[in-house]
Amino acid sequence: MSSNISDSALLQKVYEIEQSAKNTARIAQNNYALGLLQPLINGYPLLPFTGASLCPFCLAHIINDIVINRRKNIIEFGAGLSTIMIARLIKKNNLNTTILSIENNEEWAISLTEIIQCEGTNDVAEVKYVPLTACKLAVDGNDWYDVKTLKKYTKGKKYDMAIIDGPTAWQPGKGMARYPAVPFISNQLADDFSIYLDDAIRAGEQKVIKTWEEEYGIKFNIAGKTLAYYYGGTSFYTDLFNY
User: Fold this and answer.
1) What is the DSSP secondary structure assignment for residue 55, as one 8-state letter?
2) Which pLDDT value is given to residue 2?
3) How far apart are CA 215 and CA 227, in angstroms?
4) What angle, rounded to 10 degrees, do the helices at 56-68 and 2-36 form?
5) Could you tell me which residues come within 8 angstroms of residue 212 by beta carbon, excluding any fewer than 6 positions away?
6) 3-state secondary structure of 135
7) DSSP characters for 181-199?
8) Torsions phi, psi of 57, nearest 5?
9) Residues in a beta bridge with 229
10) Sorting pLDDT into bands at 50, 70 and 90, what band is 1?
11) Residue ranges of the domains in the chain?
């Protein structure tokens, strides 16, 4: 009996060491990425990095893609720090790119629009308030962005990047809340494109990814533990140095 207890304690210790090593690596990745992002931070008003934001490593991965693959038209579901940083990138690098960010919290959409206007990036970035409603594309009884309003903003456009970080999906029963994004945008994707889904470490998002893969015959990769991505057509390699 004592041997069994000892073995159990040893396995727990090994697990704790492994988790600690993973957390240390994740912190190192994000510190490294923050260094890469300094040109979009230094000299600008402070932006808070919160648990709801794309982590620095994932954001840097997306920015690599925008620059290296010359993405022109970006649509983002769930506005936030990433919207501001991408807008800064577009202006600073004088890119021929625009970003449309969809947000279901009206007050937050207004706040972000004010920041964009103050920073003078409103010619390349816009945040549109779109409420959540019942949606035929949604599953598990979830609401999604009002499709009629979305179509008004996206009509006639082709997108070569889609960033999916909304609506919120951490609550019980909301795991599949982000599923409708790909079915909605699939017919408006350019020949060469990328799709990103944040929070891919969670069970709900993993189910979303698996469903997309089965329905569209594609395969997502993972960057920074939490960012799932898929490149369609022809794209250059954009992964950050990973250690």
Assistant:
1) P
2) 46
3) 20
4) 40
5) 179, 182, 218, 220
6) coil
7) HHHHHGGGEEEEEEEEES-
8) -65, -45
9) 196, 221
10) very low
11) 3-232
Q: What is the DSSP letter of 238?
A: -
Retrieve residue 171's tokens. 């609550």
Q: How far apart are the first and last CA of the chain?
A: 41
The full length of the chain comes to: 243
CA atoms lying within 13 Å on the CB side of residue 233:
13
- If you average pLDDT over residues 75-79, what whole number do you get? 97
- Edge-to-edge strand ranges of the sheet holding 159-164: 125-129, 98-103, 73-77, 159-164, 189-197, 227-232, 221-223
From residue 22, give the alpha-carbon distance in Å to each of 15, 198, 199, 211, 221: 11, 19, 17, 28, 18
Is it the case that residue 195 has pLDDT exceeding 60?
A: yes
Q: Exposure pattern of 48-73 as b/e (b: 16+ CB <10 Å)?
A: ebeeebbbbbbbbbbbbbbeebebeb
In this structure, whether the domain defined by 3-232 belongs to CATH 3.30.110.10 is answered with no
pLDDT digits (tens, 9 = 90+) for 153-184: 999 999 999 999 999 999 999 999 999 999 99
Q: Which two structure tokens, joined as six digits, stand for 136?
A: 């035929």
Residue type, 84: I
Q: How many whole angstroms separate alpha carbon 150 and alpha carbon 212?
A: 21
Give the span between the Cα atoms of 84 and 166, in whole angstroms. Answer: 16
**Six-digit token pair at 117?**
């206007």
Residue 9 clears pLDDT 80, i.e. is over it: no
The structure's pTM equals: 0.88
